[in-house]
UniProtKB/TrEMBL annotation:
GO terms for molecular function: oxidoreductase activity. This is FAD dependent oxidoreductase. Keywords: Oxidoreductase. It comes from Hoyosella subflava (strain DSM 45089 / JCM 17490 / NBRC 109087 / DQS3-9A1) (Amycolicicoccus subflavus). It holds the Pfam family DAO. It comes from the Bacteria. SUPFAM superfamilies: FAD/NAD(P)-binding domain.
Length: 372
């Protein structure tokens, strides 16, 4: 017997979990994940930062709108608050990063993610580990926070289950075909039926679309490498995250060392991303030039996937001309920080409702139609 749901959400990362939770308030929803565990490829490998100054205009608007929704996650489910304040310094240390910093400050002036500016001396007071010989100036995002990523994901999953949601893991989608009243969703061991299919499959969003005969939108999975390196005594545990405005590296305190990245964005095939050893070596060299940290060894490294739409902004909504098929994908490297607001907006667009007035994004800016 085929089990029928109002909605089938494909993909069990942050995007899928959050939109499934929102949709389950008024619908029967099944959340489908290929892996045996949820949040395997992108969500579970995030740098865990809420950064209002990061990303394009739509991303920044959704990130700022998500701030109060992170508050409600804590209040509604009685959890420890998922955000922990940690400012971000965008530090200029050479001509390239100084030019990039100017563009960053100007593009955010008067809008979401607006930045304060710091002199070289002020930058050194915020992060004494910066190299005084090369530090020029910085921009300060004082609204940035660390995020308990898995805590947020688990809160959405608990809420989804409380609303009667069903989770299927370890069973990838093999086929998607219209059945007259919606879609037949062929899994490894069973076939489900749903009136609406939401493609929240991250790096696999285009292949899933192809299964349904829906045009691919041109999503590009990109690798992001992270590593941990000891730097005992060099950084205060509550010190800021420091990033290169030209996006060549970043680091933040972690234990007795740093969590760092070469800020790589190499296109890769969907799969289990591996860290870039060359990227790590480059990042360590450049961080050592910009700071007095003296990084020498790597304690641990890993890679994650960040999947981008062609214009770098997320995709949410129904596909024009295809009944009951929609996307929530292309979150790039910003999926965690904007997840709460994006899920609310996506649920509205996928069910034919209006975008809430307190989330200042236009439906057209998110629509799959912009790539068709």
């Amino acid at each position: 017997m085929t089990t029928t749901y109002d909605v089938a959400v494909i993909g069990g990362g942050m995007a899928g979990a959050s939109v499934a939770y929102e949709l389950a308030s008024d619908n029967s929803v099944v959340l489908i994940e290929t892996e045996s565990m949820l949040a395997t490829h992108s969500t579970g490998r995030s740098a865990a930062t809420y950064l209002p100054s990061y990303g394009g205009p739509v991303v920044r608007a959704l990130t700022v709108a998500s701030r109060k929704l992170f508050d409600s996650i804590s209040a509604e489910w009685g959890d420890v608050h998922p955000l922990d304040a940690r400012p971000v310094l965008w530090a200029a240390t050479d001509e390239t990063s100084d030019t990039a910093l100017t563009g960053m400050i100007e593009s955010r002036s008067g809008g979401p993610g607006e930045l304060g500016t710091l002199s070289a001396a002020e930058t050194l007071r915020w992060c004494p580990a910066m190299n005084p010989e090369v530090t020029r100036r910085a921009a300060l995002d004082n609204e940035a926070h660390d995020i308990d990523v898995l805590g947020v994901h688990q809160a959405y999953i608990r809420g989804f289950k409380a609303r009667g949601g069903t989770i299927v893991t370890g069973s990838g989608v093999r086929s998607l075909s219209p059945n007259g009243s919606g879609w037949s969703v062929g899994l490894v061991k069973e076939t489900l039926a749903a009136g609406l299919v939401v493609n929240a499959a991250g790096a696999w969003a285009d292949p899933v679309a192809s299964l349904a005969g829906v045009p691919q939108l041109g999503f590009v999975p990109k690798r992001r490498t992270l590593f941990m390196s000891p730097a005992p005594g060099k950084l205060a545990g509550d010190g800021p995250t420091v990033g290169d405005p030209a996006e060549r590296w970043y680091f933040k305190p972690e234990g007795d060392g740093v969590l760092a990245s070469p800020a790589d964005a190499d296109p890769v095939e969907p799969g289990d991303a591996k860290p870039s050893e060359l990227g790590i070596a480059r990042a360590m060299e450049e961080i050592n030039e910009a700071t007095t940290l003296g990084l020498r060894t790597v304690r641990r490294s890993w890679g994650g996937l960040r999947t981008f739409a062609p214009d770098g902004e997320p995709v949410a909504g129904l596909v024009p001309g295809v009944a009951g098929f929609g996307f929530l994908a292309g979150q790039g490297g910003y999926g965690i920080q904007m997840a709460p607001a994006l899920a609310v907006v996506a649920a509205a667009l996928l069910t034919g409702s209006s975008v809430p007035e307190d989330i200042p994004v236009r439906a057209e800016a998110l629509s799959p139609a912009r790539f068709l």
